[in-house]
Amino acid sequence: MLHEVARRLAAPDAEAPPTFGETAAQFNQLQSLFAQASRATPEIAADPQAWRSRLAATLRCYQLAALLQADEADSDDRQQLSQAVLQLKNALSEGPFDGAIPPLTLSGRGVNRAVLQEMATTLQRLAQGEPVALPQGEVEKAPLLAPDAWRNPAYLHFALKTLLATLICYVFYTAADWQGLHTIMLSCVIVAQPGLGATMQKTWLRIGGALLASLLALLLIVFVQPWTDSLSGLLAMSLPVLALAAWIAAGSERIAYAGIQIGFTFALAFLSWFAPLTNLTELRDRVLGILLGVLVSSIVHLYLWPDSEAPQLKTRLAALYRRLADCLAAPKEAVPLAPLLVAFTDSEALIHRVRAEPLGTYAHPWPQAKGWPMRATLAQVEEIARLSEGYRLNAAPGDPTLARCAEQLRRYAERIEQEATAPGEQLTADLTNPFGPALAAALAALPDWGPTPIATEQQAKTS
Fold first, then answer.
1. Backbone angles phi, psi at 128, to 5 degrees
2. Secondary structure class of 304 (helix, strand, coil)
3. What is the DSSP-derived secondary structure letter of residue 92?
4. Taking every annotated instance into account, which residue ranges of this chain make up the domain Integral membrane bound transporter (predicted)?
5. First-to-final CA distance of the chain
6. Are residues 204 and 286 in the same domain?
7. Residue 145 placed within a domain
């Protein structure tokens, strides 16, 4: 992160700035890594507050780097800060941090002067041993048991759907007396997830992982295995595939299961025997069992009580805009940024799940979700959050623009929940503020959540 900040300082227009979504992802990842490292690393456990300040300073510099604009007037200040950030990076990576950051004297010129001054202040506070606070705000923790666990029929429906799919596969498995097809029942249990979108995501990841692993195993068995009979040859064949599986499994949550599936399927197909495999029937049966199992499970989950997360998406996006409004209305010293970062990550994951649902099928209970501007709505959160932070740093004392922005965002959140057409609202911002015109344009470009043609047609049919 610090290396990317230094590159942005050296050349702001050389590459795209970090998005708010990337900042949110880095925040969640750093929080998780810090929690693990504080228990496993004696150096961090001995002084957690100091390391928490370093984490906060890194995250703050990363957030500020997204606000930099190309301007030759402040090139010397940017180069000075770039060197300081690189020194901080080297001190953290090569040895104990001793606060070795040189004094920073900025000229105060250029369009980035407020952003650079904020970054310099953060680095100087860290060098002097002063605490640097992480993003503030209380993040709501998910309860161990859902509040409606005993009264919501969706949980019972999910259990019954999973049971029915498994029973159908079991009857077929026993009636056909096809012993190699035992993966058909396992697939029903594995791909069953709360929510139709999550189920479809797991389905495609399982299919893709199993097919790729089977193809790799088949190629190695047919073309490579006959030419080697040593342990080194076995390792040379299996280790690259397992390394690929581990690399994918360590990636994003959206593809991690595919890596697990590749490693598991390849190991069962290639490493289950104490001799070279010559019969490919077992490999074929495993793949067929997976394909039939996910097919049956997908059909059952789609046509029997389909559990779409589309209604939750509207509520989640409206709550996200209210979080953003709270950040804009709060004073600079008490911006509740942490809940906004977590809410953004959750909303992004929910959008991916909803988009994975078969929205075009007639059995889907929310076909109008196909026309919702989900991605555009989330993208505007990123843009407004970034621009509002830049506007806050450059705002004159008593400027009410951000408060008016917050009120407009709260009204927009209500329109998301009601699927109402947004009236044109123009924000009057301080034009002398470098981020004023862009912020006004971002608010004017909020997507319209009015009724789509699909929703209008469905409403006409029901009436």
1. -85, 0
2. coil
3. H
4. 168-299
5. 55
6. yes
7. no
Domain termination residue (choose one: 71, 93, 127) = 127
The alpha carbon of residue 287 and the mean position of all alpha carbons in its chain are separated, in whole angstroms, by 30
Q: Is 398 helix (H, G, I), strand (E, B) or coil?
A: coil
Whole-angstrom Cα distance, residue 263 to residue 36?
26
The number of folded domains in the chain is 3
- Please check whether residues 173 and 286 belong to one and the same domain: yes
Contact 133, 60 (CB under 8 A): no
pTM: 0.85
Counting Cβ atoms within 10 Å, is residue 67 exposed (0-12), middle (13-18) or buried (19+)?
Answer: buried
Are residues 292 and 337 located together in one domain of the fold? no
Instruction: Tell me: do 299 and 330 sit in the same domain.
Output: no
Domain-embedded: residue 103: yes
Report the C-alpha gap between 344 and 366 in whole angstroms.
23
120 and 211 together in one domain: no
288 with 400, same domain? Answer: no
For tokens 């390391």, name the residue: 51
Residue 37 falls inside a structural domain: yes
The angle formed by the CA atoms of residues 418, 424 and 430, to the nearest 5 degrees, is: 120
Rounded Cα–Cα distance for residues 79 and 85 (Å): 10
- The CA distance from 217 to 269, in Å, is 7
Domain co-membership, 222 together with 339: no
Query: What pLDDT tens digit does each residue of the chain (463 aa) get?
Result: 888 888 888 887 777 888 888 888 888 888 888 888 888 888 878 888 888 888 888 888 889 888 888 877 778 888 888 888 888 887 777 766 666 677 777 777 888 888 888 888 888 888 887 888 877 766 667 777 778 778 888 889 999 999 999 999 999 999 998 888 888 998 999 999 988 999 999 999 999 999 999 999 889 888 888 888 888 888 999 999 999 999 999 888 889 999 999 998 898 888 877 666 677 788 888 889 999 999 999 999 989 998 889 899 999 999 999 999 999 998 888 888 888 998 999 999 999 999 998 888 888 888 888 889 999 999 999 999 999 999 998 888 888 889 999 999 999 999 998 877 766 667 777 778 888 889 889 988 889 887 765 444 454 444 4
Q: Are residues 242 and 190 in the same domain?
A: yes
CA 272 to chain centre: 36
Let me know if 49 is exposed, middle or buried by CB neighbors in 10 A (0-12, 13-18, 19+): exposed
Distance separating alpha carbons of residues 256 and 294, to the nearest angstrom: 18
74-to-14, 47, 83, 86, 102 alpha-carbon distances in Å: 16, 37, 15, 18, 19
16 falls within a domain: yes
DSSP string, 136-188: PSPPPPPPSS-TTTTT-HHHHHHHHHHHHHHHHHHHHHHHHT-GGGTHHHHHH
Burial of 30 (0-12, 13-18, 19+ CB in 10 A): middle
